Structures are given as C-alpha cells and as structure tokens.
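Purpose: get a first structural picture of the assembly so the mutagenesis plan has something to point at.
Setup: two entries, given in the order below. No constraints added.
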Amino acid sequence: MTPSDDDTQRDARHWSRVQESGTLAGMRLMIWIRRHLGRWPFRLMLVPVILYYYAIRHIPRQASQDYLKRIWPLHAGRKPRCVHWLSLRHFLVFGGMLMDKIDAWSGRTLEARVDGADRARLDAAIRSGRGGLVLVSHVGNLEICSAMQERRDDFHVVQIMHTRNASKFNELLARSNLRRAPEIIEVSEITPATAMLLAERIQQGRFVMIAADRVPINDDGRTQTLDFLGAPADFPEGPFHLATLLRCPLYTVACLRDAEGYRVEFSDFDDTTHVKRVERDAWREQAMRRYVQWLTDQCQRQPLQWFNFFPFWGSSTTHTRDDG
Amino acid sequence: MTSELEQELKHLIIDTLELEDVTPEDIDPDEPLFVEGLGLDSIDALELGLALQKRYGIKLEADSDETRHHFRNLRTLAALVEERRTA
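Result (structure tokens, whole complex):
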C-alpha cells in the first residue's frame, strides 16, 4: 500500500522524522566553545544559530506558535500580542536550555534546587528503596534532573530515550566529565527484554524516567486522544501500560527554570503495585488524564519551557511504523 | 506429549494473563501464542516476560528477533526456560 501524498506530508511532520538540526559535530563544536572559551562566547554564538533556525524551519515555528496561542490565555489571561516575538523567545529559551544541558553533560556544578516539600518527597522515595517509574515531559530541563544523581550517591537514574537521539547522547556522555553518568536505555519499542531490564533496575531501587508527552516511533497505534489546551491531542499509552506491568511507585518530575535558576519538582503520582488486571484500563484512563492535567499546570506556569517543536494537535493516525 | 515444564508454563501463562476461558489442554505447544493461536498481544508479551523473570530468573538479550523466536510457542518458551533458568 502506498500512502497518499497527504499521508506522506503529515508523516514528515511526526517528530521522529523531523531531522535533528544539531548534528553531533555541531554539538561537539558547541561543547568545545563552552569548555575553552566560556559561557559568554557560547551564548553569543547561540543567538544567530537560533535566529537562523527560527527563520528557516517552518514546521517547528508553526508548532511553537500553535502551542503559544493555546497556552497564553491560560498563562496571562489574554491572547499573545505578538505571537512571532513570543515564539522567537520560545526558541531562545530552548537555546538557553540546550546550553545548560551541555553544561550538565560537561560535568559542571549544577544549580538545581530541590526545596522543601519536593526534597522531602524525593528523600522518602529514595529511602523506601523501592525505586519507581518517573513520568516526565518535555517541560524544563530533564538532563539537569538526571545529572542530579551526580550529587547524591543514593539516587540512581535510568533514562529511557528514543533510539536516534540516544545514540548521539551516548556518544556525548562517553566524552563528558560526569563522574557518574545516568544510565541511558535506547528503545524504539518496549520489548520483553527491555521490560525485564527496567523491572530489574526498579527492584534495585532505581528510578526509571520516561517521557509521556510524545508518541514514539513504533507506537502500535496505542494512543489516547485527550483534550489538551482546548483541543484533542494524541498521548502515548505505552508509559502507562508499562506502569501497570512494573507494579511500582510512580512519580512525576520536572526541572523548571525561574529567576533563581533551576528548581526540581518531585511529586508522588500513584502506585500500581495493587492495580488488578481487570482494573488496568480504567486506571490507565484516569492516570493519563491526570498526567495531562499535570502537564497543563507545568505549561501554564512556565509556558516558554515546554520544548515541543512538533505539530501536537490533530495529527492522529499519522504515526506509521518506521524501521529505517 | 507435553513435558512437566511445558505443563508448568501453561499454568503460568493462564495465571499471569488471567485467561479465564482457557484450560491447559487448550494450549497446543506448537501453536503460535501471539496474534493467531492463543491471540496474545504485545502487552501480554511484556507481562509474560516479567513473569518468566520473576519465576525463573530468565534474562533476555535486547535483540527483538531473538525474543520473537523464544516467544513463538510453548515449546520454544520451554526451551528458553530450560536453557536460561537460574531459579
């Protein structure tokens, strides 16, 4: 069966097919500049890169503007005055996050705070020794969260990443100065072998991070269409299936930047230890709704920190198998 | 002719996946477990993998073709357990 032109075009917009603009060589150059010339030359270089990217990349720009038009009324109580300016800021904030990400991977001292109630919850989660599945999103800076483990010998993170990006990151990690880099597991789909590996890690008291705001390459059509910022959007069921199979505590974590730097938000989400098989569908449905609510809250507070630059709404049934 | 291990695995499959309408006799050791045959899906495969890990301490390599081979039917599954069991 040959896909129609329409399908092919929409397919090209799926995030996994939108070619990563940062090649490994480019990232290495950036790391070199950061290391040898310092923060300011690095920041200066980033601005034209982002401007260029904003100017030529139609799909990410469109996706960003679409999102900002939806979130801004929730955040500011009014429509954005100039969506172009806002979207450009969105891109610049993304650039800043990339810079911090490179810092984190270069093993620089992190300025991520885990305060008050969040610290108490994180401590309790670690102390329980039961590990868990941590639902994350593309809000804020995930790398800071993972790199947090460098500071705590009792905190072990396993990060699930989709294949193409993961191999790039692994190469960067291999060259990084991190004393204790997080374990990264590449997946294009969750196989029984991966599930067993994750179960083993959780048994060892580790925390497995999985993003639930992006439909993976091989999703088997397992998505749920939920209302997100006023319109239906597809969310992957995979992380929630995994949650019921692993029968463990669930948490959410985000690392948002505010005026004082990064702040880690660590929350309890649920516990699937006693969710019976017959209750799974109902559990998944409400859990996915709660996750979307959590994501909405994060976006509402820090709208420029949801780093999704792929068309998110109205793209159902475009996710075809990608074996390439 | 089914071995003792195959019989045990039949019970494991039925119990793990709560297949209420299936008896051990219904599972033909040479019939495919997934899609056709018993009609299990990919989530069931994950669950079965976890059950094998828990009960027999089995580890699988990440290679999904190999996994597909092991999970083909009851006989291949029994061969896997025979070969890799640590518990």
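The interface with chain A takes residues 17-18, 42-43, 45-50, 53, 58-64, 67, 71 of chain B (CB under 8 Å).
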